[in-house]
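Weekly structure sync, notes
Attendees: PL (lead), two postdocs, one rotation student
Agenda item 3: pending single-chain targets
PL asked that the sequence for the first pending target be pasted directly into the notes so everyone works from the same version. It is reproduced below exactly as submitted, 594 residues in total.
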Amino acid sequence: MTSYDAPLADMRFLLHGLGLLKSVNALPGMEEATEDLVDAILEEASKLARDKLAPINHPADLAGGSKLENGVVRTPDGWKEAYDAFVEGGWNAVPFDSDFGGQGLPWLVGIALQEMWQSANMAWALCPLLTQGAIELLSAHGSNEQKAAWLPKLISGEWTGTMNLTEPGAGSDVGALKTRAEKSGDHYLIRGQKIFITYGEHDLTDNTVHMVLARTPDAPAGVKGISLFIVPKVMVNPDGSPGGRNDLRCVSLEEKLGIHGSPTCVMAYGDNEGAVGYLVGEENRGMEYMFTMMNNARISVGLEGVSIAERAYQQARAYARERVQGKTVGNGGGAIIGHPDVRRMLMTMRALTEATRAVTYDLAAMLDISNRHKEESWRTYAARRVALLTPVVKAWCTDMGVEVASLGVQVHGGMGYIEESGAAQHYRDARIAPIYEGTNGVQALDLVGRKLLRDKGEGALEYVDEVHSLINGLNQRSEEDLVVIRRHLAAGVDALDNATHWLLDAAGGNQVDALAGATPYLRLFGIVAGGAMLARLALRATESIEAGGDDPILADKLVVARFYAEQILPQASGLATSISAGSGAIMALAEDRF
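Predicted structure, written out during the meeting:
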């Protein structure tokens, strides 16, 4: 496996060149997030990712990852040392409230840092990913006493957090869960089993704070009867000192396709007297509260798609530059990067990586605006955009991460199928992301069922109008690259517009038709969103060149955006055709004919 170098130039062009950081820096409380400070943060973070996290990634995968020994999970060699360096550097605290020890920086900056951790070592980075979700949950819904008790050490990273939803008989149908919670004085006793709990047990920290969904005895059926509880691995005394071990344990670790270093635990609660848990908020509102953590995680998982795509691209690029095979056009027996089809694969990998990164960073900026803008109208607008694009980022970016990692294997040829090269690990690691936090099919149903049909297309059509405004701006330009980009983007957004109206109309007649088109609609949305962001970058690069800029990245942005426009955006019209076909052929076969 090749080394990892953070794509700082691409990150900075999004943050500074496109003006995303400027839009966030103007928000109340964000004034200290200056260009110089953020650049220094990115530089230092890149060193941690390159020097500490990346070198321990592939060896852990080859060694089989984390191990369960006598009830204790041992993470791979070097992981605790890397985590200690992460905590010592204050990296976990970057986007959180300074009242509890956070640094109060924008989520936009936090997302850029997360990309580095995930690219360098996705399996390791899952631990802080879940901790930050737990912090968001408690910040939004915890009592003042709970915030004071749990947030400081979660924010510092001294303790880690988990999400406990899934059970053997309750996956996406969370309402079917059977874990019970019975009131006992000022707390509850939790009994039940949870599966697929990432970092449910580990040796990186002394304590893990589990966010557990459970049902009280008299709760209503389904999701309306779910409550949320804080269940620590180690109890905490009133003075903050550690108490005894809570009644919970890791029963086993799952054997997985990828992310071997990350312990995926089967957790048992209350085998004996019952695991002590503390109710968050009110009974029967647990799923509502958990969505705060889940939405945070959905964006971070979408970023995993970006991150693994970047890592796979870097590795494929390095291999293509050094591997000599066959005769290239006009270059005799040079490296395979001279072959047109290898160039096509590398350009596809690069364009999809840059497009998914741009869409995700733009969403992060909108998240900051929704939280902090002084005007309510702006907060409402940004919150609507975040809600609309969250399932797109989660699903489209992770799908593209798998496709880019697959292309990375293909660029390597036979060596890509050999574990020693490391290319196969990226492919295996990427494959979990379309499943995490609600499968991508569930994300598509959310996009169409909730974000499109429920608000009668307001958010989606608002987005379409903004892309049309971008195209109108491109109409004023005569440069060949921008003309080509404009033409293909216009066709793509027209396809999105038509598909959106078709789904809105179809839902009034046969809702199955609308839901049958949900997944191609989400992909169509992602392709157009990626094209729009690359068009913005291309326009900004052109303006910079006109102003005398000579950084090679400016010309690169034009090439990548044009490639995306010519080679990827044309998929939009085909997806629109699939959507408008309805559910006929999809639902036609009887179940016993499958």
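Discussion points:
- The mean pLDDT is 96.
- The chain has three domains: 8-156, 160-284, 440-588.
Action: rotation student to compare against the earlier draft before next sync.
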